Amino acid sequence: EYERVKPFGEMAARSIGYVFNSGDVKGVGIEGTYDSILSGVEGRRLEQRIAGNFWKPVGSDIDIDPIQGNDIVTTIDINIQDVAHNALLKTLRQNNARHGAAVLMEVETGEILAMSNLMRNSYGHYTENYNFAVGEKTEPGSTIKLASLMIALSDGYVNLNDKFDTGDGTYNIYDFTIRDSKKEGFGRLSVKEIFEMSSNVGVVKIIQKYYSSKPKDFVEKLYRYHLNQPTGIDLMGEPVPYIKYPGDKYWSGVSLLQMAYGYEIQMTPLQILTFYNAIANDGVMVRPKIVKAIYKHGTLVKEF
Questions:
Q1: Could you report the per-residue pLDDT of 244-272, keeping only the tens digit for each?
Q2: Is the pLDDT of residue 297 over 80?
Q3: Average pLDDT for residues 28-38, to the nearest whole number?
Q4: Pseudo-torsion of CA 264, 275, 136, 152, nearest 10°?
Q5: Cα within 13 Å of Cα(105), Cβ side
Q6: CB-based contact 294:301 (threshold 8 Å)
Q7: Cα–Cα distance between 165 and 185 in angstroms, integer?
Q8: C or N terminus of the chain, fewer CB within 10 Å?
Q9: Contacts of residue 174, Cβ cutoff 8 Å, sequence gap at least 6
Q10: At what angle do helices 145-154 and 215-224 cross, to 10 degrees?
Q11: Cβ proximity of 303 and 292 under 8 Å
């Protein structure tokens, strides 16, 4: 009988994935995505049972030789994966968190060098059983502030040294109060400092001032940054981000301002990473990839 052995335990187990024979989905991770390439073709042979309950081959025209599947080379660096896995595990334990994800991507190539996803099970142990980095949409929160400020900067409405008064760290819009993390507030901040301090009030005041009368301009810039599109990573299960548009059913008077600092939006960790990676890569966005090449008996078949 065949038994699967994971030489590195839980490390990247969900990214590597597996196949199964129940339900509509036949597999997950790299193995689920590339099953047709990995599995090969089963052979068939006619045999006759003889005395002693032994079997011997019987030459037949219906015999089919098996075809061995191809090999896949991933982009994962096991040493970096080890560091990412243990750093994530330590942080989850310190915060008693339900789950978390950590991804490290090579800037120029988009190669995923490490992808760790851990969730606490009923026994209190953290295991890899769902790929949150690829498959879980959530509100990105403050990570989206970079996009908001980039829009205002690129449109020429502000520069890094322009000052805005963030006051005592609270700002009331209709019956809604926006708060900063610092209890007494940050006072007057430059645009650069608003980003450094991650001031919710500062970002909201900038976006309200210049885009409240034309929210479509703001949202269409988010679309232009491809934030409404999946990354297209070579793994199954990536959802389409949710970024609402003015006039949509759930658009409200505070939607623009909520979106400015990362709410009423849903993206996966990998989609956010891909956006940040494009900035690190001098404005060139690259598609994340976790498979580097396909080999057959040591011979290169395809390189990605």
A1: 999 999 999 999 999 999 999 999 999 99
A2: yes
A3: 91
A4: -10
A5: 27
A6: yes
A7: 10
A8: N
A9: 253, 254
A10: 110
A11: yes
Read off the amino acid at residue 195.
F
Residue 163 predicted with pLDDT over 90: yes
SS3 237: coil
Q: Which two tokens mark 92?
A: 């989850």
C-beta of residue 153 within 8 angstroms of C-beta of residue 163: no
147: helix, coil or strand? helix
On average, the pLDDT of the chain sits at: 94
Q: Which residue has the tokens 């008996």?
A: 297
Q: Which two tokens stand for residue 133?
A: 């980095």
Its sign, for the CA torsion 202, 152, 140, 13, is negative
Question: Does the pLDDT at position 22 exceed 90?
Answer: no
Closest CA to 38 of 26, 22, 56: 26
Question: Of the spans 2-6, 59-63, 279-283, which averages the highest pLDDT?
Answer: 279-283
Question: Which amino acid is present at 230?
Answer: P
Query: Six-digit token pair at 207?
Result: 């976006």
| pTM confidence score | 0.89
Instruction: Give 41-98 as a 3 state SS string.
Output: ECCECCEEEEHHHEEEECCCCCCECCECCCEEEECCCHHHHHHHHHHHHHHHHHHCCC
Distance from C-alpha of 119 to C-alpha of 122, rounded to nearest angstrom? 10
Amino acid identity, position 189: L
* Residue pair 284/278 in contact by the 8 Å Cβ criterion: yes
Beta strands in 70-174 (DSSP E): 71-74, 99-105, 112-120, 126-127, 163-165, 170-173
Cα–Cα nearest to 261, from 216, 195, 215, 209: 195
